[in-house]
## 1
Amino acid sequence: MRVSGGRLSLNDRQQIAAGLAEGLSYSDIARNLQRPVSTITREISRNGGPSGYRAHQAHQATQRRARRRTTAPARPPSTPADTAHGRDPHAVLAFAERFTDLLAQTGLPPMMAKVLVCLYTTDSGGLTSAGLVQRLRVSPASISKAVGYLEEQQLIRRERHPRQRSEHYVIDGDVWYRAMIAAAQANGVIAEAAQQGADILGADTPAGTRLHDMGQFLRHVGEDLAQAAEHWRQIFSPSPASGPDDLERPADPA
């Protein structure tokens, strides 16, 4: 799908309003308009949210903001990533937006995707809540909700420095290992419930057979996922005495 650029027109905003009225997701609206999901998310959030969005009001508000920007002193663009080491801030920002859209398309809520990408593209791999608010220019409540969700999914962890009162939200080397193990455990729970349903409905009935097959599939997939996660964790995790540059990676297949 070709993703269009440029500013949203009044017609675009009317389509957004119509999509919200129909109960479409942000991803569906973005797909219909051939726009990034992040564009639709920002447009709706800054103009009343999904329940209060009005096309004409949003268009007028955007025009007023544009007029104010032409008279206001310029300030540095917001970027959710470090721009040290001679990085091009515009390239960094463009990558972060693309990566955020990609994660959102896989089902990760847009704000959670923003926070995760912000942490991944920060050299330290960790930021305080205030740091995330400053970089992403969103409310503390939005950050609090996002980090809570990401913690539940085992994608980030929080830590407190001994001499600092604020907590840091951190991505470490085991983040995807923990996420895969959590997914494998979830598959196991569903597989067990499916097997119980098969026993109740009768193993020889169509419904029972269907549930039995589902349970077997998820159980084996979960076991394979856990084994693969442990295998690749051992290969890609650095030893305590080595740093990232010392990590020996397996050769890519020819």
Note: The chain has a mean pLDDT of 82.
## 2
Amino acid sequence: MTWTLHNLDSAAARRAFEIASEYADAALLNHSVRSYAFGAEYARRHGLSYDAELFYVSALLHDLGLTAPFDSHTLPFEEAGGHVARLFTAGLGWDAARRARAEEVIVLHMRDDVTAAEDVESHLLQVGTSADVSGLRVPDFDPAFRTTLLTAYPRLGFGPAFLSLVEDQAARKPDCAAAAYVAGGAAKRIAANPLDA
């Protein structure tokens, strides 16, 4: 494995983990780390080059729009999370273009499929979150990788908890991507995730 179990060794990555730990509960935090790990491992297996720090920071912050302090009554949670990332990375001294990229990666993870050729970091976050939430492509990952990852970052009832969060978003924001996700059978896919078997 080429990713580290805890985090990327950079000041930005360490701070992203600290902030995510302060606002997300353990199940949501572990999901964020696993999303990064699945994406990074997918990139390694497919020979994809990407900005690891940008991807890690985006992955760690991508669901903060689901937490009470950052939940918007008008914006979809991924857009709220994108704004959190933009503010957070401004504090890190990232320039405007890099801040916008962090926001974009987070917003696009809930949009239609983005190919690696179009935007590799957004593609990796889609791969990572889809694997962790609904089990998409999970059988393609080495069993030893999955075991190591789940031992270090256990699920802690993540599936049902996440379903409750997105169902709440769908009920309050019926035009958001979460509403389409719920209407498209999210409950069934989350329940069938082989990571929870």
Note: The radius of gyration is 15 Å.
## 3
Amino acid sequence: MAGFRSLARQVRDPRCDLALRRYSLRKCLERFAPYGHRATWDHLCSRHLIEPEDRAPDPARLVAALEELEEARAVWLAYEVEFARRRKREKHDGLRRPGSFDDWHRRTWGGCGVAWCDDPAAHPVAPLGDVLRRLISALESGPGANCPVCADSGIVWKQGLAHDPWYGPVCTGCGILVPQPVLTPEALAEAKRVRRRELASVA
């Protein structure tokens, strides 16, 4: 199975036909897709003016989309290195089991679904690298009341999501599943109240 870097070389290789180069970019999303495969593809297509079903897109646009994905992956890999260092220190200090703060991290193996977007058409508009930097910064600082990516205060508790965790606080502004550790207990409680009000209005 080809790795991310091998697939990225195929995306850039002018000797490959455009269908293969596009296919290789899609395969890159099986290795790294911060919003999930479909939402990340939709994001890259909309930002780089690629028709999602075009089998022979402009190669310059394919490469630009790849470069955005690579930058975001570099941000995530740097975080993973620091996370591993922190866990090593914690184990040395006797903390063998990760705390509940790190529950979200174990569900994002390889960076897939780091900022999960359950609706593939609803995702942040900022570059992927910027989104991950904001998310990581929020995880490394104290919890707040707003979405760490778009600063929107509209957060609602959703259930039946298509990704583990199957429920949680979703930003109505940018569509990400907000990691619970970045929200205050009051913000989480308000998200659940919004959910209950929505259910009551439907009933």
Note: The mean pLDDT is 89.
## 4
Amino acid sequence: MRFGEHLKSLGISGTRVFGDSITAGFNASQPHLAWPALFAAKVNGFPIRNHAIPGTILQGSRLADGKLRPDNGIGRFENALLNAPHRDAILILYGYNDARYTAAPDTMNVRNFTRDYAKMLEKLIEAGHAERLAIGSPPYIPDAGLSVGSTGFTSQTRMGFEGYVEVVRELSQRFSLFYAPVYESMKTHGDGDLASADLVHPSDAGHRAIFDAFINAVRS
């Protein structure tokens, strides 16, 4: 059963989304065209509790300046996703900015991303959210977008970026979770076809592709 159909059978009370600027809806032309809004509208219109913060990463690793990235996902997920008993669906789309950051490879890397993502998933599963939880691979970034960004968030290779995609896919299999192949499905549209003018955030069509990946997610 696909994730959207599965949620309807569970009787969820809302949808919580967790991620960065893409999950916050950046560059969708209208709020209702951002991927979380599309998802909530499809799944009986349940209210969205959007816990995305633009510019954030998932891992609590030190950047090139020796400091942690503010509002990292591992440091705030308990308050955002486990703040009280609830029956909300939980959709996580993280890893995009982790993959883009290249300035501190000894600390900001796939290994530490895997460690912190797994720790977060373990806590969510322990709290009883496994049946309402889906995780998505980082959205596709066009080749030209790999050189766009603030200090440290450039110069990633395609192979390096895809290493983070593989981590999310492997974690979904490890924990038997619903997996949304966001990167993989966006990639089939061609390089840059779903990107907005800034080459970093998705267009309306890109947001719809992310929504499609989550609504049709299947258990790994």
Note: The chain has nine helices and six strands.
